[in-house]
From TrEMBL, chains A, B:
Keyword annotations of the record: DNA-binding
InterPro entries xref list: Homeodomain-like_sf (IPR009057), HTH-type_TetR-like_transc_reg (IPR050109), HTH_TetR (IPR001647), Tet_transcr_reg_TetR-rel_C_sf (IPR036271), Tscrpt_reg_YcdC_C (IPR013573)
Species, as recorded: Billgrantia campisalis
Record protein name field: TetR family transcriptional regulator
Superkingdom as given in the UniProt entry: Bacteria
Gene3D superfamilies the UniProt entry points to: Homeodomain-like, Tetracycline Repressor, domain 2
Pfam families reported for this sequence: TetR_C_3, TetR_N
Region named Disordered: 1-24
DNA-binding region: 47-66
Segments forming domain HTH tetR-type: 24-84
Length: 226, 226
DNA sequence: GTACATCCTGACCACATGGTCAACCTCATG
DNA sequence: CATGAGGTTGACCATGTGGTCAGGATGTAC
């Protein structure tokens, strides 16, 4: 119904130039604003009105593009999950534990750093009992964790690291890295700064890498080149 | 001593027996219910109606006891801060770092364990930018952290542990322990369990203690029994 | 110009929101 | 019994909620 394709006319370009461009620009604006509002107030606490104001658009326009509050929220979650899934996608038993763990910590830290609102959105969803993400958690993400946990275990068997519980190790890395996005307000309040700089992130990453690798009996990367 | 016979006139004192008891019972019921609802949906997302239903009381009754939604929320935050302040209250440079750090991890873990809703309430407040807690964070809590950080530094100077940044170490312990309350839904989904048992908590505590102490170059308590 | 799809939005709807209030109930004491 | 303070709550209010819709604006293709 939205589009009526002509059977024979060579309409290579149905949509006008402004069409796609306008849509893309507005959707991006709305998604950015919505991520911020949902992150700050959770699903119920966020109002379409507030999102619209943050995006500089009338409420009706937001609903025109996104259909519904729920649809918008789900779309944001899916975008965040996609970013997440790209993390540490290909590791094998033959990789160097130190390198992989450092890459894990670093990339997770970068993810929280680059998408703090998305990170908080995710956190708020989990805090509320993950009503929209239960299937993802006990499906895709669980598999993701189990696969990596198996590799950690094999490393332990080969004596490349201590035989720590791999799942709790993953949780430890998650929580430690996520903290700087989710609890940013706390970190800033306590340290007395007004922002977390790139240099801070670099230092925190180094700190976490050092403590966690040493804590698991993994030697730092420099010690294990071939 | 439920009632004190007034020496002169029974004018000033009028509280009946049922008065205090009823009030106490209802307030406790409301606070428990409210903590759960605020934790799940944040300040804006929680409705007085939902809290009332969770407490098994009419909405009017909740407002009769608590005055306003905001007052109820602030009261819950203060209760949680009081629990928090009792943590690791007296440590000195002369204590054993291993014992103190383990006690810190353990008591923080127990706090999250005993008050998961309060923990999530706090988390939701910080996630939303800590609109009600900014002063507390940059005041009391900041002092709390600085005092303990100073002690960690002195331990490092004495060679009792690695010279890691003490503030980030505190954040690391906070995030790792808080994770099991705040992200409970994630932990359960991924591990496939339906609850986190006392035995799990014990094992997680041991894991965190081992990794963090070793990671900071602290030796475990020499006199550890078994 | 006409045609047509997309874009835009104020007005509107049914319902939920936090909060108020007056009327009621309960019950120990005088 | 009557008093009176605490406890209880349905009805009510102004405002906010997510969502709909009709009608107009805009721009490109013919």
């Amino acid at each position: 119904m939205p589009q009526t394709p002509s059977p024979e006319k060579p309409r290579t370009r149905i949509a006008s130039v402004s069409n796609g461009a306008t849509r893309e620009r507005n959707e991006r604006e709305i998604l950015t604003a919505a991520e911020r509002v949902f992150a700050a107030h959770g699903y119920r606490g966020a109002s379409v009105q507030a999102i619209a104001e943050a995006a500089g658009l009338p409420k009706s326009n937001v609903l025109y593009y996104m259909g519904s509050k729920r649809g918008l929220y789900v779309r944001l979650l899916e975008r965040m999950m996609a970013r997440w899934n790209a993390l540490l996608d290909d590791i094998s038993v033959d990789d160097d534990p130190a390198e992989v763990l450092e890459a894990f910590i670093r990339s997770k830290m970068e993810l929280s750093r680059r998408h703090p609102e998305g990170s908080r959105l995710f956190a708020a969803e989990i805090l509320g009992g993950a009503p929209f993400l239960q299937d993802y958690l006990s499906g895709e993400l669980r598999t993701w964790v189990e696969e990596r946990a198996r590799i950690f275990e094999q490393w332990a068997e080969r004596g490349l690291m201590d035989p720590v519980d791999p799942v709790w190790l993953i949780f430890l890395i998650w929580s430690a890295t996520q903290h700087y996005a989710d609890f940013e307000a706390q970190v800033l309040g306590i340290t007395g700064r007004d922002e977390i700089t790139d240099a801070d992130v670099e230092r925190i990453t180094a700190f976490l890498t050092q403590v966690i690798l040493k804590g698991c009996g993994v030697r730092p990367p420099a010690a294990a080149p071939d």
